[in-house]
Design goal:
The protein is α/β, with parallel strands linked by helices. It has two domains: 4-201, Rossmann fold; 204-228 and 236-441, NAD(P)-binding Rossmann-like Domain (Rossmann fold, 3-Layer(aba) Sandwich). It is 45% helix and 14% strand. It has helices spanning 12-23, 35-42, 53-63, 72-78, 100-109, 129-140, 161-166, 178-187, 189-193, 203-234, 238-246, 267-280, 289-312, 339-349, 362-368, 378-382, 395-398, 402-405, 423-428; strands spanning 4-8, 27-31, 66-69, 81-84, 117-121, 147-151, 170-174, 197-201, 320-324, 353-357, 373-374, 387-390, 413-416, 432-435. The strands form three sheets. It has a six-stranded parallel sheet, with helices on both faces. Strand 1, helix 1 (12-23) and strand 2 (27-31) form a beta-alpha-beta unit. Helix 10 (203-234) crosses helix 12 and helix 13 crosses helix 14 (339-349). It is elongated, with a radius of gyration of 24 Å. The N and C termini lie far apart (63 Å). It binds uridine-5'-diphosphate-glucuronic acid (UGA). Uridine-5'-diphosphate-glucuronic acid (UGA) is lined by residues 124, 154-158, 214, 217, 221, 255-257, 259, 261-264, 266-267, 270, 328-329.
Length: 441
């Protein structure tokens, strides 16, 4: 079946969802309050780095099944199903979610809903938000009880967003009625026919599915990085330990890559919001370990700074340091809560002469951290450096060979913050090679 869908919020999630739904044959109107973004999208230009998204956007626009507007009224008139995809970032200075965009979206949309429809939340939210919003919709929408709320969290990864949306490993439908379930089944009928697993549940479990998934992933990463600290102290090698642990099918190798830890617009803020919400619900003790997960993760950045001081000197004033990577992970130009950029900024604050290079995230890094110096290539960034930091796991960096840097750097010091280089190659070439979680010597 094809349906008329409205997608509210054309950020990472909303834009991908809108373009993918149009690709599946639905008639999609994307709504975003930013007129600049809307014109850019209607002109077929994608403002983020996401493989495959440009083609889908162009195809959607050309087919007439996809368009963008700033008008909530047009959105309300268009959709039989309204997907809410606005951001739920961390509240400034607080360890909890900022739901202002979400609340604004619902209170703007609801009074315009005059026909029966289903409003489907996709944003990551604290448990209980959906039930509250269902009440708001019933109170504010002229169609009253004919407006239903469902929750359908998204598990897409940046850099893999299109594939994750078009071939999801699971679809979670949090519903309060058989009607809402039928509508969601119809929207995703092609994906279900292709084998995607559907979990139909209540609203709270659907909200929790997303928070719990991100909490688990963050915990796995911090677990291996905590093991890295123990390896350093005990004379072990966390990269080998990770391989050994990952070989156990009950543990598995995914998200067990040791290094500078997790960042981005999701994992860090989601574990904090999850913890805050659990505390409000009286279940804070159950999630107390997430505080430790966060602390271990942030300590990875401190340990990277300590290694830099070990190589560059305790006083880093005017020490030339090259940071390879600005994005929070490879395959993305997102620098939100990027461990790489955070480390670069701390070193800059300590007086080092930091030069950053990233293959795709230079523009976003420049915008977010204008005080840093940027270079257009690895060699340009590394020229004259006393210490070289590999901070994002881009293949271009993993493939680096010592000989490429001969006569380029001032001193042969390298810190592999993502454990992607072969230590032997660098040590044999006379470099002082260090890595997080690997004992020196
Ligand atoms: C994450 C989740 O993986 C998605 O399922 C979820 O939908 C998304 O958040 C979201 O909430 O919207 P994403 O933020 O794109 O996706 O990034 P991940 O691929 O999860 O990586 C997160 C961070 O962990 C990166 O900084 C990465 O470098 C780091 N990481 C990942 C490690 O340090 N080690 C690993 O083994 C894996």
């Amino acid at each position: 079946m094809t349906a008329r869908l409205t997608v509210l919020g054309a950020g990472y999630l909303g834009l991908t969802h809108a373009a993918c739904m149009a690709h599946l044959g639905h008639d999609v109107l994307g709504v975003d309050t930013d007129p600049g973004r809307v014109s850019l999208l209607n002109a077929g230009r994608v403002p983020i780095h996401e493989p495959g998204l440009s083609d889908l956007l162009r195809d959607g626009l050309n087919s007439g099944r996809l368009a963008f507007t700033t008008s909530y009224r047009h959105g309300a008139e268009h959709g039989e199903v309204h997907f809410i995809c606005v951001g739920t970032p961390q509240l400034r200075g607080r360890q909890r979610a900022d739901l202002s965009q979400l609340n604004r979206c619902v209170t703007t949309l609801a009074p315009l809903l005059e026909r029966p429809c289903v409003v489907v939340g996709k944003s990551t939210v604290p448990a209980g938000t959906a039930a509250r919003l269902a009440g708001e919709l019933a109170r504010l929408a002229p169609a009253g009880a004919d407006v239903e709320l469902a929750w359908n969290p998204e598990f897409l990864r940046e850099g893999n967003a299109v594939a994750d949306t078009l071939a999801p490993d699971r679809i979670v439908a949090g519903v309060a009625s058989a009607h809402a379930e039928r509508i969601l089944r119809a929207v995703y009928d092609r994906l279900l026919a292709e084998g995607a697993r559907l979990f139909v549940t209540d609203l709270a479990t659907a909200e929790l599915a997303k928070s719990a998934a991100n909490a688990f992933l963050a915990t796995k990463i911090s677990f291996i990085n905590a093991m890295g600290e123990v390896c350093e102290a005990a004379g072990g090698d966390v990269t080998v330990l990770s391989d050994i642990l990952g070989a156990d099918p009950r543990i598995g190798p995914a998200f067990l890559r040791p290094g500078l830890g997790f960042g981005g617009g999701c994992l860090p803020k989601d574990i904090r919001a999850f913890l805050a919400r659990a505390a409000e619900l009286g279940a804070g003790e159950a999630l107390g370990f997430l505080r430790e997960v966060d602390t271990v993760n942030l300590r990875c950045r401190t340990r990277m700074i300590e290694l830099t001081c070990a190589q560059g000197g305790q006083d880093l004033t005017d020490v030339p340091v090259c940071v390879l990577g600005a994005a929070f992970k490879s395959g993305s130009d997102d620098v939100r809560d990027s461990p790489a950029l955070d480390v670069a900024q701390i070193l800059h604050g300590m007086g080092a002469r930091v030069t950053v290079y990233d293959p795709v995230a230079l523009a976003s890094a420049r915008q977010s951290c204008p005080q840093l110096r940027y270079a257009g290539s690895v060699l340009e960034a590394a020229r004259g450096a006393d210490v070289l930091l590999l901070a994002t796991e881009w293949p271009e960096f993993a493939e680096l060979k010592p000989v490429q840097l001969d006569g380029v750097v001032a001193r042969r010091n390298i810190i592999d913050g993502r454990n992607v280089l072969d230590p032997r190659v660098w040590l044999d070439a006379g470099w002082d090679y260090r890595a997080l979680g690997v004992a020196v010597g």
